[in-house]
Design a protein that fits this description.
82 residues; alpha+beta; 3-stranded mixed beta sheet; two-stranded antiparallel ribbon; 23% strand
């Protein structure tokens, strides 16, 4: 779990993506890392897009919901999608 302490780096095919820190970046104020590379649960600076915008392997929540969830889970928690 990374609570937006700095820029995030991850590979997206042939290019590396760098996401700057801050609540208005594409992953919002919180990133909860999942075991598969580039997959996570995160916030969004635009709550109107929750449930309407496609994401490759991520679950998008409002920033406040992502922050609440992050405060209740610990590294190593098992996440199951059904």
């Amino acid at each position: 779990m990374d609570e937006n302490s700095g820029a995030r780096h991850y590979d997206r095919g042939d290019r590396k993506v760098i996401i700057p820190p801050g609540p208005n970046n594409p992953v919002g104020s919180v990133w909860i890392d999942l075991s598969r590379d580039t997959y996570g649960i995160h916030g969004t600076p635009d709550p109107s897009k929750v449930g309407k915008t496609f994401s490759s392997g991520c679950v998008r929540l409002t920033n406040w919901d992502a922050e609440q969830l992050a405060s209740r889970v610990k590294p190593g928690v098992r996440v199951v999608f059904r």
